[in-house]
Specification:
Layout: H1 3-17, E1 23-24, H2 25-31, H3 40-56, E2 61-64, E3 78-81, H4 95-106, H5 112-126, E4 139-140, H6 147-159, E5 163-168, E6 175-188, E7 191-198, E8 203-208, E9 217-218, H7 232-237, E10 245-252, H8 257-261, E11 264-265, E12 276-283, H9 286-295, E13 300-304, H10 306-324, H11 344-360, E14 364-365, H12 366-372, H13 377-388, E15 402-404, E16 409-414, H14 426-439, H15 450-468, E17 478-479, H16 488-500, E18 502-510, E19 515-529, E20 532-539, E21 544-549, E22 553-562, E23 585-591, H17 598-601, E24 606-609, E25 615-621, H18 627-633, E26 638-642, H19 644-662
Parallel strand pairs: 4-19, 6-17
Antiparallel strand pairs: 1-3, 2-3, 5-6, 5-9, 6-7, 7-8, 10-12, 10-13, 11-12, 14-16, 15-16, 18-19, 18-22, 19-20, 20-21, 23-25, 23-26, 24-25
Helix pairs in contact: 1-11, 4-5, 4-14, 4-15, 5-11, 5-14, 9-10, 9-18, 10-19, 14-15, 18-19
């Protein structure tokens, strides 16, 4: 990233903020740009680009003309920014409001909205309006965005650019190219949907993100406007769920216990091979059910309907095609990182948060400040070094930032009118306001009563909507999953055990092992990924922390013992569906562009970008028995490169599954 450009933009902002009567272009050229060499046209283009950049941060640049002269004359026009321009209004929060707000921000675990939520919280902390909120262990819902398509559509929504993508229609099963103006994103029935204007059809349409067959492309040369009063939540409330159908399946005898629990036998139907049972299983969405059935490999064969059978075969054939290609060499760079390349705009945006944060949090250790902003210590020091070299045009000592970090604690003594954070961006406002709306369906958390939580949610939503202003309007374009406390009996049993510090005994079905086990566990935390609820616990039989899905628990009761390790917020953050151990197997995956998000989903330790937009990912797995299921399920989005024995077993699994249909 260009430190010189960051410094120039920062100095221009400071100059325009700290002038009462405005500064002419000639003064700015000499004092801020120190430009004597370029011609007038080149300087003019640079100046206009920089003004546009500052406007993108929300700063209104005023132009002042001499009496009787045109404001279009660059020789006589002066420029300034009002001191209150784009300042975040005061948002005074009670402890209860702060608690529910942090819970709302934590919903977006990863994704563009996750970073936006964290950024919005830092702004509130930087303004002194949000103190430290300590969340006790307990219920922590999470929203899991739907892969790379989600990120691209969020970016398109914020920039108001149309998008194009390949899409497999549910009605015909055919793949087409669609051009859409994105109006909103939301989740219903366990799936994410894009609501938008289909330009080819000239009408509003709903698109399921899981049916997108290519990467989403932003058409940056085009733009559109959101319809007035658009509300994604209301739009999705009117979306009808797909009708229920019955799948006729041939299932290996004694296998797939979880699938069998949802099935009924089909009298009078004879399986094609001995050792199989014919079962009817209800389903609604063929693509979603096909993902599950493909993972079962040779243990299941779809007889009908034809649409479901085709969807399963398509996934298996894509997996076979991927594993049949020549294997790539496994090479990871010395420092493996998939972070987006930082730009001077990123750095300036961070500095506009960093200065007020330091003003209201004097004396924090330098590493803690870096951690709060999600950057390295080296990056933070680079920011601070630019800041202490920046200031007002005259450049006297009192006209520069005064920041000290020599004793490993950061103090700021001169802030040059940047002591208040800038307003929320549309992304930041959307992340917080959508998160608050989502919490409304959950039982009371973090020590609050039901009435306290409802009151805090209502009041903090009003305060944030007021502070967000126009930026809050786009929040109506997002509708998170209606998270509710599923499996209510188990939910209440776990929350009570966490509160009382009591052990639980459970009978648990594992689809990977296709078996039921009995365990004694110390519950640590309940959390969700969209509508799927898990509880994290120390498992005494495994002598390790494990995660259990509530909908796979067959029995759960207190066993009368006290937990060996009480739950706490510190030991249960961050949320992870997998806890590493010394017995893990390290697996190298090759992921396609559409499957690259799996590196995040499975907490890849190292990654390397591939020329086709995919990734090499090194992932640790506690159990590898289910990896053939994983490869078949993702239909060509992933293949195993190492260890070779796992690659071979996965290939055999996929080919055996396909053999049933080809026979």
């Amino acid at each position: 990233m260009s430190a010189s450009r960051t410094e120039r933009l920062l100095n221009l902002l400071l100059a325009l903020l700290n002038t009462k009567y405005g500064l002419s272009r000639a003064v700015l050229r000499e004092k801020v740009y120190h430009d004597d060499d370029s011609n007038d046209a080149a300087f003019g283009r640079m100046f206009e680009r920089d003004k546009t950049e500052l406007r993108s941060f929300g700063f209104e640049i005023e132009t002042i003309a001499e009496a009787g002269l045109s404001a279009d004359d660059p020789a006589t026009t002066r420029y300034r920014i009002g001191k209150e321009s784009n300042r975040l209004p005061d948002v005074h929060l009670t402890p209860a409001e702060g608690t529910v707000l942090v819970l709302a921000a934590m919903l977006w675990e990863r994704s563009a909205l996750g970073g936006a939520a964290a950024s919005a919280l830092r702004k509130l902390q930087a303004s002194g309006d949000l103190g430290e909120v300590e969340l006790p262990a307990g219920v922590q819902p999470r929203i899991k965005p739907a892969g790379p398509s989600f990120e691209a559509i969020v970016n398109a929504l914020n920039a108001r650019h149309p998008v194009s993508f390949g899409y497999r229609a549910a009605s015909t099963g055919l793949e087409e190219r669609r051009r859409v103006e994105p109006w909103g994103l939301g989740s219903r029935f366990g799936q994410w949907y894009l609501v938008g204007f289909d330009r080819a059809r000239g009408a509003k349409r709903f698109f399921r993100l899981s049916r997108m067959t290519t990467a989403v492309q932003l058409e940056t040369r085009d733009s559109y406007e959101l319809p007035a009063g658009f509300d994604a939540r209301k739009e999705l409330d009117g979306l009808a769920e797909l009708p229920q159908q019955d799948a006729i399946l041939e299932v290996a005898a004694g296998r797939l216990l979880g699938l069998r629990k949802r099935s009924v036998p089909v009298p009078g139907r004879t399986p094609a091979q001995s050792g199989q049972d014919v079962l009817a299983v209800p389903f609604r969405d063929s693509e979603l059910f096909a993902e599950e059935l493909a993972s079962y490999g040779p243990h299941v064969r779809v007889v009908e309907p034809a649409e479901l059978r085709t969807a399963v075969v398509r996934r298996l054939e894509a997996a076979e095609a991927a594993i049949s290609r020549p294997a790539l060499p496994v090479e990871f760079p010395a420092a493996s990182s998939r972070a987006r390349k930082r730009t001077s705009e990123d750095q300036l945006s961070r500095m506009l948060q960093l200065v007020p944060f330091l003003v209201h949090n004097q004396g924090l250790p330098i590493q803690e400040v870096a951690d709060r902003f999600g950057i390295s210590r080296k990056e933070l020091i680079a920011d601070l070094q630019i800041l202490i070299c920046s200031g007002l045009p005259e450049g006297y000592p009192d006209d520069l930032f005064d920041i000290d970090w020599e004793d490993e604690h950061v103090y700021i003594h001169e802030h040059l009118e940047l002591n208040r954070p800038v307003r929320f961006s549309e992304e930041e406002a959307s992340a917080l306001l959508t998160g608050l709306a989502t919490l409304g369906n959950l039982p009371a958390q973090a020590g609050l009563s039901g009435d306290e939580q409802a009151s805090a949610l209502e009041s903090v939503t009003v305060k944030l909507a007021g502070a967000a202003g126009e930026a809050g309007r786009v929040a109506a374009s997002f509708a998170a999953p209606p998270v509710e406390a599923a499996e209510a009996g188990f939910f209440e049993t776990v929350t009570a055990a966490i509160k009382d510090g009591r052990q639980l005994a459970l009978r648990y079905f594992s689809p990977q092992r296709d078996a039921v086990s009995e365990r004694d566990v110390d519950p640590l935390r309940l959390y969700s990924q969209d509508n799927t609820w898990y509880f994290e616990a120390y498992c005494h039989s495994k002598a390790a922390v494990r995660n259990f899905r509530l909908d796979r628990i067959e029995e759960l009761v207190p066993n009368g013992n006290t937990v060996s390790t009480p739950a706490s917020a510190e030991t249960s953050v961050p949320v992870k569906l997998y806890t590493p151990s010394d017995d893990d197997v390290v697996v190298v995956l090759q992921l396609s562009g559409q499957g690259a998000h799996l590196a995040d989903d499975y907490y890849a330790e190292r990654t390397a970008e591939l020329p086709d937009g995919g990734l090499l990912a090194e992932v640790r797995f506690g159990s590898v028995d289910w990896l053939p299921m994983f490869i078949a399920q993702h239909g060509g989005a992933a293949r195993i490169l190492e260890p070779a024995v796992l690659a071979e077993s996965s290939a055999a699994w996929v080919r055996a599954a396909l053999g049933q249909y080809r026979a």
